[in-house]
Specification:
By secondary structure, the protein is mostly helical. It contains four helices and no strands. The two termini are 36 Å apart.
């Protein structure tokens, strides 16, 4: 059974303080496979971050009024006609989640997954969504 790739490796050979060089051609095939899995996990994590950031930018530019309505916090100045920042979009999404889950739980597989696995004692506001 193949192990789940992590960003670290238990079997990693320590390198010198300022040396990032590893001579992978001198290592075993299993160690090289672990390095490939580690690099793949790292790249997938970065790709997910880029996609999430792009979606937040899209929501900021194309749905700014809806984002501001769901923001639910205070800023010193909210300039009309200016797109909200990615942080404001993230806060608006987290504020809208408890309202969204109960309404779309029957249709959306992801919403059902979240509701089924949340811990009501630790979920805070999300505990009320279940």
């Amino acid at each position: 059974m193949r192990s789940i790739p992590h960003y670290w490796m238990r079997d990693r050979v320590p390198t010198g303080r300022r040396s990032g060089d590893q001579y992978l051609h001198r290592t075993s095939d299993d160690y090289r496979a672990q390095v490939r899995a580690k690099m793949h996990a790292y790249h997938v994590h970065l790709f997910k971050g880029v996609v999430a950031q792009g979606l937040m930018q899209y929501l900021s530019v194309c749905h700014a009024p809806l984002v501001w309505r769901s923001f639910g916090s205070w800023l010193r100045t909210i300039r009309a006609g200016t797109a909200p920042s990615e942080r404001v979009v993230a806060m608006a999404l987290s504020n809208a989640l408890p309202d969204c889950l109960p309404s779309c739980c029957r249709e959306c597989i992801l919403a059902k997954f979240v509701v089924d696995r949340q811990d009501p004692t630790r979920a805070g506001v999300l505990g009320m969504a279940a």
